[in-house]
């Protein structure tokens, strides 16, 4: 059972890293600021979500696992709130009034 | 297991560092504000991985603080960005 | 935004619900140790007071079924959004066709619309980029050749139904 859970952890964590790598690749390759922001808000948050999911069995209890989920929810909430703000800033910089 | 999780933390750290080098070049303020976001998300990932790898639950509190700070930092940078004075 | 029609649920109920949520959050973050609970009660009380001042309760009537569906759909959407961006970023033969479009929301300007726009920034291919003149919203699309506006309108209807802000 523990071996199975460890396997789950590793698969999810390394899948998460793949999305972080993809996010950085997007930052390096995408031509405009707003597209780079897509890479950041979508790929990186999925990466963090997968890493948190993978670590849940290793948290050692219900409360620590819930704490991991709270951290992830907070990061997601912050990312979702801040994403449109940065996109608006990028648009205003692109086309000065 | 612990070694693999530490390796994972290192990989995330390297990836985030590569992204940071790109964003900090700009050109605009929006790119640089994204650095705060990237450091937040990536930093949280590194900290939760290290918390599990080294069995240090206190690192989770650090990750939580980083989640809060990254949000505030990004909002503050957007509000204070040059050229934003015209609008609320 | 004073919504007419819906009967007020009473500030007491809203305060009790928020207080319980904050206390629950405290227990998750600080642990259930009884000697810390006094501080937790104080913190939850203060947080409730601050949240009621900053975000007065609105007469939303969440529909549990629609809300559950929205929440369950979200991981799938996040997976689609992330995978789409990841493939675009990692495949050297592909590149984004970004574009900006004007999209007119059905939700009135206010907290429901803000919440939806934050949610939409996590959906595949779309990123709200601030208001335009005349009530429209600028949407940055990662692939502007796809029907982004229609997708936004569909998602908005789902979202409005789930939080019960469409009445």
Automatic annotation (TrEMBL), chain A:
<feature type="transmembrane region" description="Helical">
    <location>
        <begin position="69"/>
        <end position="90"/>
    </location>
</feature>
<keyword id="KW-0472">Membrane</keyword>
<feature type="transmembrane region" description="Helical">
    <location>
        <begin position="43"/>
        <end position="63"/>
    </location>
</feature>
<dbReference type="InterPro" id="IPR005133">
    <property type="entry name" value="PhaG_MnhG_YufB"/>
</dbReference>
<feature type="transmembrane region" description="Helical">
    <location>
        <begin position="12"/>
        <end position="31"/>
    </location>
</feature>
<dbReference type="Pfam" id="PF03334">
    <property type="entry name" value="PhaG_MnhG_YufB"/>
</dbReference>
<dbReference type="GO" id="GO:0015385">
    <property type="term" value="F:sodium:proton antiporter activity"/>
</dbReference>
<keyword id="KW-1133">Transmembrane helix</keyword>
<protein>
    <submittedName>
        <fullName>Na+/H+ antiporter subunit G</fullName>
    </submittedName>
</protein>
<keyword id="KW-0812">Transmembrane</keyword>
TrEMBL record, chain B:
<protein>
    <submittedName>
        <fullName>Multiple resistance and pH regulation protein F</fullName>
    </submittedName>
</protein>
<dbReference type="InterPro" id="IPR007208">
    <property type="entry name" value="MrpF/PhaF-like"/>
</dbReference>
<keyword id="KW-0812">Transmembrane</keyword>
<feature type="transmembrane region" description="Helical">
    <location>
        <begin position="62"/>
        <end position="81"/>
    </location>
</feature>
<dbReference type="GO" id="GO:0005886">
    <property type="term" value="C:plasma membrane"/>
</dbReference>
<feature type="transmembrane region" description="Helical">
    <location>
        <begin position="36"/>
        <end position="56"/>
    </location>
</feature>
<keyword id="KW-0813">Transport</keyword>
<feature type="transmembrane region" description="Helical">
    <location>
        <begin position="6"/>
        <end position="24"/>
    </location>
</feature>
<keyword id="KW-0472">Membrane</keyword>
<keyword id="KW-1003">Cell membrane</keyword>
<dbReference type="Pfam" id="PF04066">
    <property type="entry name" value="MrpF_PhaF"/>
</dbReference>
<dbReference type="GO" id="GO:0015385">
    <property type="term" value="F:sodium:proton antiporter activity"/>
</dbReference>
<comment type="similarity">
    <text>Belongs to the CPA3 antiporters (TC 2.A.63) subunit F family.</text>
</comment>
<keyword id="KW-1133">Transmembrane helix</keyword>
Automatic annotation (TrEMBL), chain C:
<dbReference type="Pfam" id="PF01899">
    <property type="entry name" value="MNHE"/>
</dbReference>
<dbReference type="GO" id="GO:0008324">
    <property type="term" value="F:monoatomic cation transmembrane transporter activity"/>
</dbReference>
<protein>
    <submittedName>
        <fullName>Na+/H+ antiporter subunit E</fullName>
    </submittedName>
</protein>
<dbReference type="InterPro" id="IPR002758">
    <property type="entry name" value="Cation_antiport_E"/>
</dbReference>
<dbReference type="GO" id="GO:0016020">
    <property type="term" value="C:membrane"/>
</dbReference>
